Amino acid sequence: MQTGFSQALQGMGQSGSLYGQAAALDQQASQSKSELIGSLGGVAGMFLAGSDEDIKKDTKKRANTSRMLKEAVATPNREGWQYDPAKGGPDQGGMKHDGPMAGDVQKTMGNDVAPGGKVIDLVSMNGKLLGAVQELHKQQEKTNKRLVRMEAKAAA
Q1: Which of 6, 98, 127, 138 has the CA that lies 20 to 30 A from 65?
Q2: How many Cβ atoms sit within 10 Å of the Cβ of residue 115?
Q3: Which residues have C-beta within 8 Å of that of residue 106, sequence separation ≥ 6?
Q4: Whole-angstrom Cα distance, residue 12 to residue 69?
Q5: 101 and 78 in contact (C-beta within 8 Å)?
């Protein structure tokens, strides 16, 4: 009877130890998940920049969309490039990207958009590209109006 009781206690002790290990692993997993979520929140914050006019100043100047179109057209756009972890880039498992190089953006759009020619300020780049699209729209509208006038003249 004593042997059975001792074995039962020993089994309970091992169960308790296993339970403690499982709880520790669960706690580590929860902490890792929290850290990951915090990191993702930080990354999302970079892409979800506050944009309400109430938190900005000097917002009255209209964009020079003609200049923005020229800058966008002059910026080389590259296709199929990858970050190189051996050179300090993130390891993205060979994921391919399309888009400009920061040095090219700095040359065509200035240091405010690509500080030091090493990074691209995505908020400023987005503004430049929006301006370029708006300029294209204006030019297309003018072309359409000219075409309508020419067609009307030809029909008369």
Answers
A1: 98
A2: 14
A3: 113, 114, 115, 116, 117
A4: 74
A5: yes
Helix (H) or strand (E) run with residue 14 in it: helix 2-47
Alpha-carbon span 71 to 106, nearest angstrom: 10
Kindly state the helix (H) or strand (E) to which residue 98 belongs, with its residue range. strand 97-99
Q: Which residues of the chain have pLDDT under 70?
A: 1-48
Rounded Cα distance, 153 and 156, in Å: 5
Q: For 17-40, what is each residue's pLDDT tens digit?
A: 655 666 566 666 666 565 656 555
CA distance 82 to 84: 6
Radius of gyration of the chain (CA): 30
What are the sequence ranges of the domains in the chain?
1-49, 59-155
